[in-house]
Amino acid sequence: MLTISIWPQIKKNLPDVQKPAQYIGGEFNQISKDAAKVSASMVFCFPDTYEIGMSHLGLRIIYEAINAEEDLLCERAFAPQADMEAKLRQQHLPLFSLENHRPLKEFDIVGFTLQYEMSYSNVLNMLELAEIPLIAADRMGWPLVIAGGPCVYNPEPLSDFIDVFVIGEGEQVSIELMRLVKEIKNEGGDKQELLNRALKIDGLYIPCFYKKVAAKTGVIIREPESGQVPAVVKKRLCVDLDKTVFPLKALLPNIQTVHDRLMLEIMRGCGRGCRFCQAGIIYRPIRERDPDLLREQARQLVAATGYEDIGLLSLSSADYSCISELIDMLMADHSCRNVGVALPSLRVDAFSVDLAAKVQQVRKSGLTFAPEAGSQQLRNIINKGVSEENIFAATEAAFSQGYTAIKLYFMIGLPYESNEDVVAIADLAQRVLLAGRKVKPAEIRKPLKLTLGVASFVPKPHTPFQWHGANNEEVLKEKQELLKKQLRPIKSITLNYHDITTSLLEAAFARGDSRLGKVLLRAHDKGCRFDGWKEYFRADLWAQAFVEEGLDYRNIATQTFACDDALPWQHISCGIDSDWLWQENLKAASGQPTVDCRNGDCNGCGVCANLASANVLATRAGDDHE
Amino acid sequence: MNKWRLSLSISGKIVYLSHLDLLASFERALRRSGLPVAYSLGFNPHMLISWGPAHPVGVGGDNEYCDLVFAEPVDEQWQQQLNAVLPDGLHLNSARPLLDGATSLMAAINYAQYLIELPDNVNTTALDVAIEQLFKSDSCVIERISPKARKRLDIRGAIDMLKRDGKLLCLSCRLGGTPTPKISELAEILGVTVCSARRTGLFIDGNNGKILP
Ligand code: SF4
Question: Low-confidence residues of chain A, pLDDT below 50?
């Protein structure tokens, strides 16, 4: 195993493909181990291109965590682009890892990360290119095919293809699983034996031990085959982030990636409880890293990579308890070397703009805010704790500091949304622009520009809105048209919105059950891939695939569930009590707020008790607590 | 001013990086080295480096050049210090201090030599005929298709010398004036496939013959 390298064959094709550097591996700081000296191997597969996958922190963390273990090995693989895929198929070359150009099928474990529903067709395509049978039940021997990432909180659409789903944070459980592989291989056991014993590892969902049962609404749910199988699989969680591995010798991508900067993870989780946001629920509780540790990590990372920007990663970086101090420390350490700090996620308030101003001491970039809804009433419904004052304070601060272009993110199709709420988006944008013109410094000539990114809301599992259906095609279309009409006369506002079919398909795969596996297989056979890319997305082929299976993605996307309806993902738990989610859903209807639990006001979501954890907030030595 | 002219070699996998990605990789190495590279002023400060002709993707280089400015004097060790942190395949051959007012690399360099390796089974008789033909004619028009445009270019003027030596092709090209062929385009004209290609040298071709930058 793991002895073959197909580099010579791949190399021959490099002159004929776009961006050949994405296929060569060998990046600075790459970890390349001797396969003969390890006892279990995994290839981490990102079902999108190298440029996108290499910006993904999860990949970096798992890569580091596994390779830090002497007896284990992790390599990387990405989806090849169309030109390279054609070459591989013509020449019957299997999909390969980047470190040593080994065929994926030679690894013990082929692991996918599922970041986005529209990448599912790429998962199937990569398996096929790897010459690995797609259907789990057809795969007798190795490799074991596993998947993790946020989409596994509803694993069912992929449950026919994946042997084991890893629920929650993967750094510890991947190692446990690999050690089990090692044990089984030593004993000469087979994959079935492995699956049997993997039942004892927490956080693993192994679909073959669950039967498919039709609930009274017609959706297919999963029930354990026997008493040894957990009825609900609870997510894994790293309670103390300061004790987890973090990659300090970060890989330097060979080609420019979408976020080409150092990734410093400052916290996980978010206590805000926005009712539409899956990330805000599934990554709970809040766990902040120690600022002094972060300072040291940043020093090592900059020294090991030479990167020009340090990105502070989290769901909402301005929420991090010691954010000002942290930024001051990082600037003090690095700005003399022209290394800047980047805050990819800003809150909508003046404080965030001050932070942005602070980090702009080195480099200037645009600002983005996400009020999510145009009217106060709807922002209350979704529990986006942002007031109109916050929005104006933030945007006016930005414009008065000389920014001339701001992006605002909104959603349409939210539960309880009326056409007035949609018009309120256009209205708010215009008022922001007018207010901005008043405060704009006189010496700046450039006219102000606003860009509105308006996404269609996709209800996600494990959120208070999981029971709601998405708006249907006609309603979404009408709302988009309404916005267009409102904004057409205003030249300084650019409106971007999402393709409706893509959003509805995303919703169907986010909320659908195991029947979607057959649809996915058909779509794959018809040639669907890179569905998240406008230039490759084939709505017609997807529509055919659904028709042939007798399903309608529109129905799945827009289906509303009742409180006691069985849900396709009810056997997966992120630690949050489902009653609490329902209560939140009820509070949404009347626009009642739920406060951020980071300040000690626990609102009883249950995750802390269920996962024996707690919010961990950072403090600095010398901090006096009043 | 503390300006240096660097000669670098590019080999191995890194030759597949685009020129821009290679520059980014070099700049990150400079930052890792801790050497006091000078930056431009303004909102988006960048390192004061200027490169000679871009290296073509997939083509190695024995002597590629860039000019680099340091903000403070550097000690003798600086070249070793930089070599210690360069990525695999990128190597600093040598460096020499540059006087103020030296002509920029892009303006000065106008001549390049390549070594092209052909497969074992190359039809040498046919190739020799193709080379002869190329030199007999005074024009050789190729079509270059990019996503944006389709251009017809006469590359004959750029080719100064082309010689076969066993399975090796030695090519000398004039740069900067008439359009220069890509290695792949030349291979197509000659009807051969290419195993690997290297730019062996870049020169300033003037009244006194070819000199190194
Ligand atoms: S249990 Fe309470 S403190 Fe813990 S995350 Fe939930 S709401 Fe916050």
Answer: 362-363, 624-626
Among candidate residues B107, B136, B160, the one where a domain is terminated: B107
Index of the ligand 1 atom closest to the CA of residue A614:
4
| A580 and A622 share one domain | no
* Boundaries of domain holding A142: 7-234
Q: Which domain holds residue B86?
A: 2-107
Q: How far is CA A296 from CA A289, A314, A327, A330, B31, in A?
A: 12, 18, 13, 10, 18
Shared domain check, A416 and A389: yes
Task: Give chain A's largest Cα–Cα span.
Answer: 77
For residue A602, how far is its CA from the centre of ligand 1 (angstroms)?
A: 5
Instruction: Let me know whether A24 and A98 are in one domain.
Output: yes
Q: Is residue A198 domain-shared with residue A270, that is, in the same domain?
A: no
Among the partner residues A14, A255, A337, nearest to B21 by beta-carbon distance: A255
Per residue, what are the HEC states of A301-314? Answer: HHHHHCCCEEEEEC
Q: What is the pLDDT of residues A406-441, one digit of tens each?
A: 999 999 999 999 999 999 999 999 999 999 999 988
- Is A296 among the domain residues? yes
How confident is the model at residue A234, as a pLDDT? 97
ipTM over 0.90: yes
Region of poorest pLDDT, from A1-15, B70-84, B126-140 = A1-15
Put simply, whether B14 touches A (Cβ < 8 Å) is yes
Neighbouring C-beta atoms of residue B47, cutoff 10 Å: 18
What is the average pLDDT score of chain B? 92
Cβ–Cβ gap B58/A20 under 8 Å: yes
| pLDDT for the residue A404 | 86
Q: Given A217, A234, A251, which residue is the final one in a domain?
A: A234
Select from B77, B107, B137 the last residue of a domain. Answer: B107
Which of A21, A305, A306 is nearest residue B17 as measured by Cβ atoms? A21
- Identify the burial level of A261 via C-beta atoms within 10 angstroms of its C-beta, where 0-12 means exposed, 13-18 middle and 19 or more buried: buried
CA B24 to mean position of chain CA atoms? 16
Burial class (CB in 10 A: 0-12, 13-18, 19+), A557: buried
Q: What value does the mean pLDDT of chain A take?
A: 93
- A317's CB contacts (< 8 A; 6+ apart) are A266, A323, A343, A344, A345, A346
In a domain, A540, yes or no: no
